[in-house]
Amino acid sequence: MADFFRFENRTTIKATLRMETALSVGSRTSFLPAGSDLPVMKTPEGIPYIPGSSLKGVVRAYTERLLRTMDTLEKKYQGQRVWACDPLDTKKCCVPGDIKKKLFQEAKEVDAEFTSLLYKESCTACRLFGSPWLASRVAFQDAFLQNASEMLRLTEIRDGVGIDRDLGTAKTNVKYDFETVPAGACFGITIVVENATGWEVGLLLLALEAMRKGELPLGGKTTRGVGWGKLEEITVQRIEESDILLYLAGQKEPETLDPKDLIGQFTGALR
Ligand SMILES: [Zn+2]
Predict the structure, then answer these.
(1) How many C-beta neighbours within 10 Å does residue 71 have?
(2) Residue 188 Cα, ligand 1 centroid: separation in angstroms?
(3) Residue 159 is assigned to a structural domain of this protein
């Protein structure tokens, strides 16, 4: 299992997200319901950024869909099920409360052993992205606008018409304005993965492939042509435990890996 108490390796994925359409900006004073509609925030200086938690949410949801497909196809990795639970459903999640209680009683050494038992029970998605009972090994940094100087305006106000969420039709008399970051905006993406195997990084990169191809939109207004972009210049760097001292001392650069190789490690290991 992944070690949560010791450094084994760190993989850093960097990329640029170039928006092909506008991206809607959230605001705490918005009249819109909060939640998935709000992928972009602004710093006090007015610089738009996509919160890391929003990016993680989009990538996790897509990864879970991939994993559910693999599970339906009965794909296995080293004999283990490859799957995703519903972590927010207390009954359908991979480690329900009664199992947690049982594992806690079984564990003699509370910290390490309990974590190890929880890890064994957890689904592939929770193992990587975390759950209320397991720390995440993937961290998405806030993605700030990189090309502010190239842009005429950092944000624009759009005229919106209320859409009935259930019917998908315009609600009459419901009108509001929403703020967007115009098309062409580039955001710097950094994802740090701790103590992951090449296989797990491959799974994450496979999910990012959808973003690279421009098939994974951000935010809740995507049916109205907002939130579509493509990932460019994806780089992967990895530092191993054996090199950590030299790395921290600035005497060794992380190893650069080919995203395609890592994706191949994931797909190639499925049986
Ligand atoms: Zn799970």
Answers:
(1) 16
(2) 29
(3) yes
